[in-house]
Write a structure and sequence with these properties.
The chain is α+β, with helices and mostly antiparallel strands. It folds into three domains: about 120 residues, RNA polymerase II/Efflux pump adaptor protein, barrel-sandwich hybrid domain (OB fold (Dihydrolipoamide Acetyltransferase, E2P), Beta Barrel), CATH 2.40.50.100; about 50 residues, Dihydrolipoamide Transferase; about 210 residues, 2-Layer Sandwich (Chloramphenicol Acetyltransferase). Helix content is about 30%, strand content about 25%. β15 and β16 form a beta hairpin. α8 crosses α11. It is globular and about 90 Å long. The termini are far apart. Keywords: Acyltransferase, Lipoyl, Transferase. Belongs to the 2-oxoacid dehydrogenase family.
Length: about 400
Amino acid sequence: MPEVPIVMPQLGESIAEATILTFNVAVGDTVEAEQDLIEVETNKATMSVPTLCGGVIKEICAEEGESYAVGSVLGVIDVTEEEIQRTGVSTLAQAQEEGSDEDSSDEEEANLHFKQDGEAYFEPKAIEPNVKGLPVPMGKKGAHYISPRMRARMNELGLQAADISAINGSGAGGRVTVADLESFLEYINAWPSSPASPMRRAVADAMRRSWSRPLATVARPVVMDKLLKYRSEQNPKPGLTLYVLRALALALAEHPEAAGYLIGGHIVHPRAFDIGLAVQVEDGVMVPVVRDVDTKSVADLAKDYANLVDLARARKLTEEHTKGGIATVTNFGTFGLTWGTPIPLPNETLILGISAGVKKPVWSEQVEAFIPVTEAELNLTFDHRVIDGGDAGRVLNRVAELLERPEQL
């Protein structure tokens, strides 16, 4: 009976690996075409790996909790000739024939090997995640220069420059040497630790790349009473974040240069005002993108907003849901926080955060007395290479103005 491999598919344009969470089948199980066989986790979402044809599971040659590169063989299915003809899938025999024309490095990448008698077998090799971190305390010195030898050792361990910044170096000018690194690793070896999830590693990598730019934050309070009253009169009542999302899109439509992205000697301006929405999920944050926010009312945005939040929390976002944003809104006020400095994604210039509302006495010229109002802090972090504080201030002031006149949203 022909055998067909179960292969780790390409789960997104920028995804090179995935971690196996659960096998939904066992050896000996009968499966149908398009049946979900394996749950995997990428750095963006949880997805299913389906079978391309029906048959009987002959072998599972991967392990739960391990990461495998795209193209890795995860198992083998016994398939009938009729099913091969119906679905057009490639068999092991065809893979063997194609593999004989490839060099050994290509065979290793596909995890396909051949015995001397020509029999094909698979030996999937788990790969180390490409982003790692260490639980390190704050240090006073770090490595501004990394020697080739040190870089080679860091590459072996999967370390970034940020991972060694807490080590007190004994080299010239405080440079961290390989001996310093090995001593530090031995020192923390007995510390409690836990593996970082693909989501946590993805967030760490994005923030490391973001912080390579000169970022700055401006802030101002906004009085929320009119917005809260206006929102309470709507049926159904939209989420507060929707108003902030809409206000930012309108402000950027008036000042599109503020959302530009610096590439070499050019600033690329936005072609659409698609705004990301930070959604807290287990062990990280996901940022689905709401499309054409400047052209839709808050009521029109509500369905898109609810659907994207549900998909994010279920870890079902696809690349189509997350690409193309020009800025992000994060409502950290839901955690009771009253101030913050959010960090924009590497491919965005801006991120707007809003804090929890707090009752404060504010002087009123009309009644010549202090009156209680609900104030929230708006925090706008931006790439200082693209815009300056004045430009950021104009955007932020316009956002505040719109939130204090919610009927315009």
